[in-house]
Specification:
- With about 210 residues, the protein is an alpha+beta fold.
- It has two domains: about 100 residues, Alpha-Beta Complex (Ribosomal Protein L22, Chain A); about 100 residues, Alpha-Beta Complex (Ribosomal Protein L22, Chain A), CATH 3.90.470.
- It has a five-stranded antiparallel β-sheet. The protein has a three-stranded antiparallel β-sheet with strand order 1-3-2, with helices on both faces.
- The protein is globular and about 50 Å long.
- The model has no long low-confidence stretch (mean pLDDT about 95).
Length: about 210
């Protein structure tokens, strides 16, 4: 069984005190979804992850003193949060984590298995400058996956403001010890070219966990 207590503690360390964090396992039966939390044609595994993520988010609501509420999925597949709240949900096959805060704070979290990023994906995920920083590093495949995780967290954080879909090349990640910066390589609504978001990361339960707040 995954150690959800350890996962929550790791997330708490990465995120501001005002952010409520809760976790669940998609391998355990989650409370029923609310009627408007539909996920058409989802396979059982995806439905289990979706339900666990919503259950974790409602646990986070309670930590903020907010009543339980539905979290439907919009046409863009992003969660529709109750008025006055903003959050981020991330999941893998074994872990689900939700982080919820009061608006207007932006927040993005992402969990990815701490495994190598396949080399044939490097040109899709990494900008040339990012690939250059990894040259000659024996941990390059793992660091490439960490960059992927960081970009996913940044995308989730910025989306409520920009409402813009973009590729991995729109963000350039610079890694430091347990922290990273994300520079916008081009402008999107609400974020000018060169704008920088700051994030933190850790490794927990054989996963990378990245978090961004702004």
């Amino acid at each position: 069984m995954p150690d959800l207590v350890a996962l929550i503690a790791a997330a708490r360390h990465l995120l501001p005190a005002a952010v409520a964090v809760a976790a669940a396992s998609p391998t355990q039966t989650a409370p029923p979804l609310w009627p408007d939390e539909v996920l058409p044609n989802a396979v059982p595994r995806r439905l289990a992850e979706f339900a666990a993520g919503r259950a974790a988010a409602r646990q986070a609501f309670a930590l903020l003193g907010h009543p339980a509420a539905s979290i439907p999925q919009g046409p863009d597949r992003a969660p529709i949060w109750p008025r006055g709240l903003n959050g981020s949900i991330t999941h893998s096959a074994t872990l689900c984590l939700a982080a919820v805060t009061r608006t207007p704070q932006l927040i993005g979290i992402d969990l990815e298995p701490a495994t190598a990023l396949a080399f044939d994906l490097w040109d899709v995920v990494l900008r040339p400058a990012e690939q250059a920083t990894l040259q000659g590093n024996p941990n390059a495949p793992l660091l490439a996956k960490l960059m992927f995780c960081a970009k996913e967290a940044v995308y989730k954080a910025q989306y409520p403001r920009s409402k813009t879909l973009f590729g991995f090349d729109a963000i350039e990640i610079t890694l430091a010890e347990n922290t990273f910066t994300a520079r916008f390589a081009r402008s999107v609504p609400g974020f000018d070219e060169g704008h920088v978001l700051h994030g933190r990361y850790t490794e927990i339960e054989s996963h990378f966990l990245c978090a961004v707040t702004a």
